[in-house]
Design brief:
Number of helices of chain A: 7
Shape of chain A: globular
Structural class of chain B: alpha/beta
Number of helices of chain B: 12
Distance between the termini of chain B: 43 Å
Oligomer: heterodimer
Strand order of the largest sheet of chain A: 3-8-10-11-12-13
Shape of chain B: globular
Largest interface: A-B, 61 and 67 residues
Strand content of chain A: 15-25%
Strand content of chain B: 15-25%
């Protein structure tokens, strides 16, 4: 993976996500909230001004990029940014069949493992002797929210054979093959990594675009299964001048640039 | 599930001391703990629980838990955890003692996600044998957790989730009065409360440590902020440290890094000696952390 001097990988990934968020969407956040929140603010500013963000967060208010549940900033004014207060059990509204009452309809998940059918795993790995060879943190909200969202994206800050596997050991959020077994629709729309963007064809991960910092051979070498390789693969559109200008206004503390130190690819 | 012969007596509401708080806890109980990510873990009380060498506890926490769960596991107090996740966001992807104990089969993990966790508590509050939830089937959760079943009704799948009942909850909140009314202040992060109220509703007894005891008039000024009533309350400033207290101070991430370092070096017992066993009480702990350090964590915009 080559380093790009004009933008960070974090900024590229935020742009890729921002371009997918539409006016109709209501988006919520979990882990890595700063990055997905930055993408949502960018989308509101440039592409989808009617995009709804939980709590009524808007790029036109005082903007703070913070984790979803806490801040490390003693100057935080986050209580002035919101339109409503909530308790955590409002997460159950993800099941509400009425769109305007649902927690969200657009979400993001990640995993310790992601497989070619879009199943994700935050639970852990096993071997013949142990239920947990590696114990992961646990599924957080990914299981129910991914299943009940109208659309969701998988993202990963790591692109490696240990992360992208043929079949996950344990399933936190269900992908296409599992959904087929249970007769339900839906599934991840895209899987976004530091090297490329995958979409899905007939429920199998397919390379949609490769970032200019990478190439097909690298993607295949670092993926632990054979994805669908279409004849024509786009180069992921680089962040435009406008996108970068807005991102850098939103991201005063440089989260999207510092995020690059977490990237493994 | 509790039946009408099992209506249990709650502790009498009002101001109590630490001895009374921890005195109600016995080994083998199911306890609820506040603490969502870095927010509101009842750490001062937990350090006293560890010193009393209470064990075999079932912990209901989170559903995204952190140090309150991890430190009790590391101290050998825990038999089972009911939580969807134990992590130190940005410091460690998986909380270190939780990870080690689960890999060595030393604790039982009641596998779930955040929604399933809430449904189980609601089932307990409503005293029913199970509640349905329209997601989670097909995941590994019903396969790992034998209490949770997949069922099919009219061609659609659901999870059948049993109730969770809690003997006693320890919750760190904002302010309270002598009647046991508990509130958080207005300047809470993104207007978010977590599971304090729900855990209280699920519990036979509720102990709330708070940053400040106030008079009843102050509580009545904002009745909409009262989330718990009739609690046993105890004033413990910085009672959540190194966690954050909603509306009062941010988390002490350097302390979390230090904790993680002790674990990485397999010296967790030294951490416990330094911060728990060598501390006579919370005042000793505050002195050790230092007034300057604590003041640097205080939120500025009230």
């Amino acid at each position: 993976m080559k380093i790009n001097k004009n933008h960070s990988i974090g900024e590229l990934l935020a742009c890729v996500i921002a371009r997918e968020l539409k006016n109709d969407d209501t988006v919520a956040f979990g882990l890595h909230a700063e990055f997905t929140l930055a993408a949502a603010f960018l989308a509101q500013k440039l592409y989808s001004p009617k995009l709804k963000i939980r709590h009524g967060l808007s790029v036109n208010n005082v903007v703070e990029l913070n984790p979803a549940a806490w801040t490390s900033n003693v100057d935080s004014k986050s209580h002035l940014l919101v339109q409503y207060n909530e308790k955590h059990d409002s997460i159950l509204s993800i099941a509400n069949p009425n769109e305007q009452n649902k927690l969200c309809d657009t979400f993001f998940v990640s995993g310790l493992q992601i497989d070619k059918s879009g199943n994700t795993n935050l639970i852990g790995t096993k071997d013949e002797n142990r239920k947990f060879k590696f114990r992961g943190p646990g599924s957080i909200g990914t299981t129910s929210i991914a299943q009940l969202s109208k659309k969701y994206f998988i993202f990963s800050l790591e692109h490696s054979k240990r992360r992208f596997v043929e079949e996950v050991y344990y399933i936190s959020s269900i992908g296409y093959n599992t959904r087929k077994k249970y007769g339900i629709a839906g599934g991840p729309l895209l899987c976004i990594t530091p090297l490329c963007v995958f979409d899905f064809e007939n429920g199998i991960m397919r390379i949609k675009s490769i970032h200019s910092s990478s190439n097909l051979q690298e993607v295949l070498d670092k993926t632990g299964f054979q994805p669908i390789v279409p004849k024509n693969i786009e180069i992921t559109k680089e962040p435009s001048k406008d996108e970068l200008k807005i991102l850098r206004q939103i991201d005063k503390e440089g989260f999207l640039i510092n995020m690059d130190s977490e990237i493994v690819a | 599930m509790k039946n009408k012969n099992q209506l249990l007596k709650s502790g009498e509401a009002g101001i109590i001391d630490m001895k009374k708080a921890v005195g109600q806890l016995k080994s083998g109980m199911t306890i609820g703990l506040s603490g969502f990510s870095y927010m509101n873990p009842p750490m001062a009380i937990i350090r006293e629980i560890i010193k009393k060498k209470i064990n075999n506890l079932t912990i209901v926490s989170g559903p995204t838990s952190g140090i309150e769960t991890d430190i009790l596991i590391g101290a050998g107090c825990v038999k089972k955890v009911i939580t969807s996740c134990v992590a130190f966001e940005k410091i460690e992807g998986v909380a270190p003692n939780f990870r080690k104990a689960a890999e060595n089969n030393e604790i039982e993990v009641w596998e779930c996600d955040e929604c399933i966790w809430h449904v189980a508590l609601k089932a307990g509050i409503q005293n029913v044998p199970y509640m349905l939830w329209p997601a989670g089937f097909g995941s590994s959760i019903p396969r790992l957790n034998e209490d949770i079943k997949e069922i099919k009704i009219n061609g659609k799948y659901y999870l059948k989730i049993p109730p969770i009942n809690i003997d006693i909850s320890f919750l760190h909140c904002g302010i309270a009065d002598s009647k046991g009314n508990v509130q958080f202040p207005n300047n809470i992060f993104l207007g978010r409360l977590f599971c304090e109220q729900e855990l209280a509703e699920s519990s036979t007894k509720v102990v709330c440590s708070v940053e400040k005891i106030v008079n009843n008039v102050a509580i009545m000024r904002h009745p909409e902020r009262t989330i718990i009533r009739n609690a046993q309350v105890i004033e413990i400033p910085f009672g959540a440290h190194p966690g954050a207290s909603n509306g009062f101070y941010i988390p002490d991430l350097n302390h979390y890094k230090e904790y993680a370092r002790y674990c990485r070096e397999r010296k967790f017992n030294d951490y416990l000696k330094k911060y728990v066993f060598n501390m006579k009480n919370h005042e000793d702990y505050i002195k050790l952390i230092g007034k300057n350090e604590l003041n640097s964590l205080k939120l500025k915009n009230k």
